[in-house]
């Protein structure tokens, strides 16, 4: 059984003060859910807020993750943060290959491959993002684009490590646009990605969580979570409000 994962990606938002405010409200709302919280919840703030968030959530059920990571463990890489540094802070996840990093900052499949490897080596779990642009979807190449990203990004991963890898299917045209994918379309691509993982790694594909991301909110999460193939969501804008993110978690659990 794959435990659903609901992850908030704050992107470049919130000061430390705002982070602590959010954490207080969100921790209270999660505590109110008690035993009904049958999901893993992850919050990924900017690097500057990681120490504060890790210290607040260190004893609870809420996991903390980074939005990016560098591939080398240490050295002369000005401005970068390594996976062992994230582990040391108390992080359990790192997002890798988000489309904003691929498209705005020029991250390649080869960089993603190295980052996934570094995250696993440090004992963290990668959330590797894949997804097609609108142009690619209209050209009918969504499957092919995701296949390349999955194949290249996971090239250095062994089958026995795959259960710890999370894949997020995030169609670029649905990110931050308010236009979410149709659950049918998301399900179709996610099923295809799972088949690709199976072809590459075998039966462990049944244990790999594959999330949907792109304009997820409390009013549309149910449509995705009622599909058995979709194991949760990577939430951007709607994850910035603790009350809305808690509602997303609740709705997701109810839908299962
Ligand atoms: P969005 O972002 O929910 O604001 O569309 C999703 C993401 O980028 O992970």
Note the gap between the termini.
12 Å
Tell me which ligands are bound.
2-phosphoglycolic acid
What proportion of the residues form beta strands (DSSP E)?
Answer: 5-15%
Give the helices and strands as they follow along the chain.
EHEHEHEHHEHHEHEHEH
Rounded to an integer, what's the Rg over CA atoms?
Answer: 17 Å
Structural class: alpha/beta
Instruction: State the low-pLDDT regions, or none.
Output: none
Shape: globular
Number of strands: 8
What does it look like?
With 256 residues, the protein is α/β, with parallel strands linked by helices. It is built from 10 helices and 8 strands. The protein has helices spanning 16-33, 50-56, 83-89, 99-103, 109-121, 134-138, 142-153, 183-201, 221-225, 242-255; strands spanning 5-9, 40-44, 62-66, 93-96, 125-130, 166-169, 209-213, 232-235. The chain has an 8-stranded parallel β-barrel with strand order 1-2-3-4-5-6-7-8, surrounded by 5 helices. Helix 2 (50-56) links the parallel strand 2 (40-44) and strand 3. Helix 5 packs across helix 7 (142-153) and helix 7 (142-153) crosses helix 8 (183-201). The chain is globular, with a radius of gyration of 17 Å. Bound molecules: 2-phosphoglycolic acid. The site of 2-phosphoglycolic acid (PGA) has 13 residues, from strand 8.
